[in-house]
Write a structure and sequence with these properties.
The complex is a heterodimer. Chain A is of the alpha+beta class. Chain A is built from ten helices and twelve strands. Chain A has helices spanning 3-8, 59-81, 126-149, 199-202, 210-230, 234-240, 255-273, 282-292, 303-306, 316-337; strands spanning 12-13, 17-23, 33-39, 45-51, 90-98, 104-112, 116-117, 152-153, 162-164, 170-172, 179-180, 192-193. In chain A, the strands form three sheets. A six-stranded antiparallel beta sheet of chain A has the order 1-2-3-4-6-5, covered by helices on one side. In chain A, strand 3 and strand 4 form a beta hairpin. In chain A, helix 3 (126-149) runs antiparallel to helix 10 (316-337) and helix 6 packs across helix 7. Chain B is an all-alpha fold. Chain B is built from 27 helices and one strand. Classes of the chains: A alpha+beta, B mainly alpha. At the A-B interface, strand 12, helix 6 and helix 7 of A face strand 1, helix 1, helix 2, helix 4 and helix 6 of B. Strand 12 (192-193) of chain A pairs parallel with strand 1 (41-42) of chain B, so a sheet runs across the interface.
Amino acid sequence: MDPFDTFFVGRTLNERWEVTARRHVIHEAPSACRTYDASGPDNEVVIVKVLVPELGASLEEQRRQIDEFLYEIAIVDRCGERNLRRVLRALDAGRLAIPGTVPITVHYLVLEWADRDLRSFQAASDEEHLAASLRFLHEMATALHELHFSRIVHQNLAPTNVLCRPDGRTKLGGFSHARSLDQPRPYGDVPLDQTRAPPEILYGGTVNSFEDRCAVDMYHLGCLGCYLLTNAGTTVQLERRLPHLFHWTIWRGSFADVLPYLRVAHETLVRELEPAAHAMVRVELVRGLAQLTDPDPARRGHPRNLAGNGPRFGFERYISLFIRLARQVEFHLLKRVS
Amino acid sequence: MTTRADDGHRRLVPRWRYSGRTILGREHEGDPKAKRRSAPVASNITALHQEWQRAHDSQSARELVLAAVVEERADLAREAAEQILANPRETAREVIGAARFVLGDRAMSQPHAAANIKTSFEQPFKQARRVIALGRQGLRAYPRNVPRRLDVARAYAVLGQNDAAWREMRIALALAPDHRVVLRLAVRLLVHLDRREEAHALIVRHPRTSVDPWLMATEIALATIIEETPHSIRAGRLVVAESGLPSGHLTELASSLGSVDSGSGDHKRARKLHGLSLQDPNDNVLAQAEWLAQRDYALRKRLTDARIELPGSMEAQCHRAVSESRWIDALGHAYEWHHDEPFSSRPTTAASFIAASILQEYTEAIAIAKAGLRGDPDDALLLNNLIFALARAGRAPEAARHLERFATLRRSRVNEFVYVATRGLVAFETGNPAAGRLDYMEAVRLAQDRANRLQVLASWGETELHHQTALADELYRRVITAREGVTDPAALAVADAFARTYSLVRSARALGHAPDGLSTTARLPISAAEET
């Protein structure tokens, strides 16, 4: 425990939330946040996300961090206002003054409790894992659909942000990269994590419009599907299958020039993904994931949406697909038990 | 007589291989002038590394290894990768693959591994059929896979199904209309289909050609093929002189410009450009240099000193072996070259020439010529070589049949003296020596330079020797005389082959094994003066 933890643990925030312990979470760069466990007035457990000022940072940088954090709070609040059921709810937010020679103010956000994230999920059998994975995909597709409908893009769907609640529900958290169409981010987009960034971003493409950002969310959903099947995201698998010459860290050309090679890597990836999917759902699931992770954002998504039937980056068809497949596997499991 | 390994020209038309065997080089890099654009992404690998050092569990090891693959930071993740590989049963297959990748085991095969080829001539065609079958199946599921479409187009070209090849290429062009490699391969196919003007028009009107050294090189090569003034000469010279691009990106452009300068007699500038082109060449440029070195002593010396070895340089090795008169090696390299570019008639022309005229392996010459004709049944050079080999192998009726068809073809790539000499040979073999001799005399007259004349005389001598006529001795003497001053290794080798056969027959006759049909008193119907 560092001095800040010593100071913070045991405090009561807003006369309601008593901080009990620090929670070990790797926050994605760039982030100056920490996470703590806390308990509420009715003994309910909550998570407190705190922006700890970096003492070595410049005033501008500190200002930026505070503004970004306040923006995140505003987005989570908005999700709560719109009653988005698959988004982790904000219970409170505020600030705490730390007295001293140089008084410091820390901002915090109290979120509803989640036991664990997707990385620690384990199932008893492959079929149960598949059923749960399809449920996760369905929940996340629905969460993204709800967010897009509320003119918000998430931009950071990752296993660490898929949070499992004690009641068995799965919710989407981690809104540090989110962006509302109605209210631009004060300092532009937060850089995405390289290990999950879609190819158009890795290869120096620009993401300007709301649609571009929806395409990123769509890629992240497919990436999550790949992770659930193989324990590795799509970007990792793509880069591993590319000749070194085309690795994004050394590529100098345009995205269009590298796209044919990315396509070959993507096709190989999809072919090798097939054995990882259960035969019961293989064809439809792998086809869906291939569409979601298409390296070309102009071709990403369902072909019918591409053809103009429905919103360009609509998730409706995937929501239906994942829930149908999940029920199919669950029915199979039930039949086996009975 | 057979025609030379080439028709006297070699242009830097892009090399075309299956995607799995493509040698990835500078050509496949993106824009050489562009700076690497920084992607708006953040790295978490340091945090993941710290977490793994703290926890040392499988989850943190996995996350670190996966991040290391994307971020190319194998240095940070080696130990984590070893930890994963120590318990492979508990780890997903993809993560094991990533761990191996971090430890240096690239999942993909190295594409530039040149095949060791000494198999049947049928093998490239079998391979082409397999590529088409698998390719079409793959394209049904993934129709936008451009490299696969190019592979299928190439396979169709190998099988001589030119319309299908162009159809696939057109789709590839529509999918990646501005892609350098696709454009160059489209041009390569059009040249193969003898639609050279169309190929030039395609490349010349493309906006990328004005800025891309690789496309400029192709434009210059195509313009010289269709005997037009290249559009990119001026811009190309500027790029070579002032762009500051790495020499690997300028290699083809410098070689193309150098070839143009060689052709126009500006040897000083050509040498400089060839010097630049050989600083970081690809296999195509090396082949061009080796081909030019057959005629350019300075270039040959430079190549001999440099001894550049590149993967996939079968053609260059073939030309080098020809320059050094290593004919068996040259034939072997020509076979490898044929397996590398089975749709091209150049390797089969070279191989059939060496096999028939120099090594006198007529059965092999027939086989390789027929293999080449499968890709392009109307290739005049190959057809000529096939007729020659058939006639020499004692299959005169078959040779005569092919000659009839040959007479109706456009023979712009075959020198007239070659055609006339071959006609003479067939006339001889079909029982009309008088007509044959007249044709040979005409061929000697038509042959413009000493090397060509030497080859005609040697071929004629061989025919007379084969028919045990009285003129063989006189032709032998004439060949010995004509040999002086000729430096072309191929012409000398043809003359030597005749001399060798002549000596063998002479020795056999001296030992009483051959009928005495040769007379030293016989005279040639034309004198040496008349020849010139």
